[in-house]
């Protein structure tokens, strides 16, 4: 409640409220008018620089118009130059396109030729490769045929080896095999008249081969038998005891064979005081030398020398040298006679050479005289040609009469 003088106003009275609202509105309008006036003053103050800016903006717009006109002229000239540039670029582009087309065509032609050449080379290479492949296949077929043939030969050789084992398992056939091998070696190493096979000696024993060496040492016998059973037992032995027994048996068998050869083929006055025992197996020979050297020494003591195919060939070549020396000693008389005849022929040649030298010397003198006479005749002919008769008079004293020598 508000009391003004005697009047009391209530806050809930509508009239009071409306009065207050009207007063507030009026106050608000007054305030707005004051603000509007002040704003108008301020706007007038602010409008002056804006007007000045508007004037400047007008001048700027005018200068922009002038610049726009100039720019439009520049743009026209730029458009013209641009059109000319475009035309030039179009012409150059057309030329470049033409050149590119030509180059592409040339490259296409080159590529086509290269592809053609490459195709020809590939065809040639493929043709050559085909020929090489065909040739290789042909050679392969030939080699396969050779392998098949070798396989057949191997199978045949296996059968021959089995038959060889059968041969070596029999004493008689084994002896024949050793004799055949000995026959082949001796026939290749010695002349045909220096040996004989299956020769019977004075004691009734038959030697497998008798080499007819001169005295000393005299004919020497080669025996081709060998104790193979004991060696096979040695090879088949597995334990040390079996090997020791087999080795002892082999030594005993060889010892017995050495004694037999020494007693049968060493005959005083008929054969040499030694003989050869031929072993057709290098393995047996190596086994004897490596593990039974005492047997070899016993053979040396009994003058029985054990030989293998290799050492037998070397021994026979030594014998061939002995036979050659013996035959040369036998032909010594003939050689001396031939030397005396050769010496006489040399003396005759010397005599003939002396006579020929005399004749040649006389012929040389005659040729010298002929050359001297020819020289003089040439000089006279030259002087006659020059009419030099005065110089001919002194020369007449040296004229040789016809039929006489200048001496």
Automatic annotation (TrEMBL):
InterPro entries: DNA_recombination_RmuC. The keyword Membrane applies. One of its GO terms (biological process) is DNA recombination. Keywords: Coiled coil, DNA recombination, Membrane, Transmembrane, Transmembrane helix. The chain crosses the membrane at residues 15-37. Coiled coil: none annotated. The keyword Membrane applies. Belongs to the RmuC family. Involved in DNA recombination. This is DNA recombination protein RmuC homolog. It comes from Litoreibacter halocynthiae.
């Amino acid at each position: 409640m508000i009391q003004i003088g005697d009047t009391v106003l209530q806050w809930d009275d509508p009239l009071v409220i409306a009065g207050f609202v009207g007063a507030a509105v009026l106050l608000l309008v007054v305030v707005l008018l004051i603000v509007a006036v002040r704003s108008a003053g301020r706007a007038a103050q602010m409008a002056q620089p804006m007007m000045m800016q508007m004037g400047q903006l007008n001048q700027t717009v005018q200068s922009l118009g002038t610049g726009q006109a100039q720019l439009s002229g520049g743009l026209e000239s730029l458009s013209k130059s641009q059109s000319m540039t475009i035309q030039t670029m179009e012409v150059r582009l057309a030329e470049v396109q033409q050149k590119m087309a030509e180059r592409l065509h040339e490259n296409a032609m080159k590529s086509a030729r290269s592809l053609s050449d490459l195709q020809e080379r590939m065809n040639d290479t493929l043709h050559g490769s085909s020929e090489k492949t065909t040739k290789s296949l042909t050679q392969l077929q030939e080699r396969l045929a050779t392998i098949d043939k070798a396989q057949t030969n191997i199978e045949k050789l296996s059968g021959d080896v089995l038959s060889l084992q059968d041969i070596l398992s029999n004493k008689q056939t084994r002896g024949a095999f050793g004799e055949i091998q000995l026959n082949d070696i001796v026939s290749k190493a010695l002349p045909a008249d220096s040996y004989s096979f299956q020769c019977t000696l004075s004691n009734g024993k038959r030697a497998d081969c008798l080499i007819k060496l001169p005295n000393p040492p005299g004919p020497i016998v080669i025996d081709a038998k060998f104790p193979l059973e004991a060696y096979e037992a040695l090879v088949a032995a597995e334990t040390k005891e079996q090997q020791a027994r087999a080795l002892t048996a082999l030594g005993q068998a060889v010892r017995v064979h050495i004694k037999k050869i020494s007693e049968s083929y060493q005959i005083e006055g008929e054969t040499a005081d030694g003989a050869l025992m031929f072993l057709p197996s290098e393995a047996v020979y190596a086994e004897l030398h490596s593990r039974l050297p005492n047997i070899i020494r016993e053979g040396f003591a009994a003058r029985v020398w054990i030989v293998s195919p290799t050492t037998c060939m070397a021994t026979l070549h030594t014998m061939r040298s002995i036979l050659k020396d013996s035959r040369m000693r036998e032909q010594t008389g003939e050689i001396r006679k031939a030397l005396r005849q050769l010496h006489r022929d040399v003396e005759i040649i010397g005599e003939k050479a002396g006579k020929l030298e005399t004749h040649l010397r006389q012929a040389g003198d005659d040729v010298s005289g002929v050359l001297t006479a020819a020289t003089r005749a040439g000089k006279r002919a030259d002087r006659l040609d020059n009419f030099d008769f005065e110089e001919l008079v002194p020369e007449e004293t040296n004229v040789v009469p016809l039929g006489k020598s200048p001496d």
